[in-house]
Amino acid sequence: MFGSSIKIGRIFGIPIGVHYTWFIVFILITGILGSNYFPSEFPRWSGFQTWGVAILTSLLFFASVLAHELGHSLVAKRYDIGVKSITLFVFGGVAQIAKDPPRPKVEALIALAGPLVSLTIGGIFLGIYFAASDRNDSIAGLAYYLGSINIMVATFNMIPGFPLDGGRVFRAIVWAVKGNFVSATRFATTVGRGVGYLFIFIGVIRAFWYNDLSSGLWIAFIGWFLENAASQSYAQVAIRQALEGIYVREVMSRDTSFIFKRIDLQTLIDSYINFSGKRFFLVGEAEKWEGVLSLQDIRKVSREKRRETRVADVMVPVGKVATVKQSDELLKAIEIMDNADVNQVPVLDGERVVGVLSRENIVRLLRSRAELKAGA
Questions:
Q1: Could you say which of 119, 143, 158 is where a domain stops?
Q2: Does the pLDDT at position 162 exceed 90?
Q3: Quick check: bond before 102 cis, omega within 30?
């Protein structure tokens, strides 16, 4: 979903991105504030003042959402759990945590951090509102909206519908009681899907029974998102469970054929790729590999220049290549691939390349296991 995000910087070493859907909701919120909310609350404001405060309020609201996600992320980092990125999108924001928390307590602390940040921000803005209400109505209007909306965000996120923050706290409680992470996730997912269906039902009733089409459809859309997110979250956990106890050496391809770095890309395409369908290449020699080349690297070169471009010109040199050991657990290897954002990695035994691990290998393993389980 977040492949189309625009990277805007880093905070505490965490990449921050904005998905294209954020721009849509930013325009909608600014439009509602500028054309409806502020004109009705402050009819004597000029157009410039109204729209200026509306734009600033929208920006500060999304800064608050970012702070909410940073709350999750910093607590995760405190417990040595990596954070891949934070992305702002149509429903607010999401912090992509690298792995599941090791204990129920850590899960609960990470989940609670975001709502606590939102409550704190909400309290600060409401304090500003009370201090400025008799002095500056621009600041007061902005502060009241941001104070109220942040408290609403905290309250909404504490609904026990997984994968909302409240749902994650609920999973942590069930996990602590049952002692089984997967079982707790399954239970929390069932509740989360139920919450999603409830939102859909409320949205439909509001849209067609009370003739409030816009808000009704929005509530139903949120419900659909929650139900879908809960199902996907459980699927990810189920996949991790299926891969536990499996090692790289059991899944990797043992094809260690190399290509020479001096050949040009067009020759490689004509004489090999078009016939083999291979997407990833080791560059060098068996005893001395010098890098890797993928189809993504080749695609960066225009067709007109592929004849004059050598493999050495576009390959990823050894020093920058993510690698795994054949003795690594598969889950660890997947984490390495995710962090490097690659689909294939060389497998090493000491300094020697003994194979290649690809996501295709992993998918094939999962598919085979699923088919065998279905046939049992």
A1: 158
A2: no
A3: no
pLDDT of residue 351: 80
Burial 150-176 (b: 16+ CB within 10 A, else e): bbebbebbbbbbbbbbbbbbbbbbbbe
Evaluated on CA atoms 329, 331, 333, 335, the torsion sign reads negative
* Whether residue 153 is found in the same domain as residue 283: no
**pTM for the full predicted model:** 0.74
Domain boundary among 129, 158, 187: 158
Q: Which two tokens stand for residue 291?
A: 């890098």
Within a domain: 303: yes
Average pLDDT taken over every residue of the chain: 89
Phi, psi of 261 (to 5 degrees): -75, -15
The amino acid present at 118, given as its one-letter code, is S
Of 225, 234, 227, the closest CA to residue 197 belongs to 227
Q: Are residues 15 and 150 in the same domain?
A: yes
Asked if residue 186 belongs to a domain, the reply is no
Best CA proximity match to 322, nearest among 345, 306, 299, 303:
345
Read off the CATH number of the domain in which 319 is found: 3.10.580.10
**DSSP β-ladder status, 258-259 and 344-349:** unpaired
User: Any idea what DSSP says for residue 100?
Assistant: -
User: How would you list the strands of the sheet with 6-11, edge to edge?
Assistant: 6-11, 14-18, 83-89, 92-97
Alpha carbon distance 216, 228 (integer Å): 18
Question: Which domain range does residue 98 map to?
Answer: 6-158
Residue 183: in which H helix or E strand, if any? helix 181-208
Q: Which amino acid is located at 3 in the chain? A: G
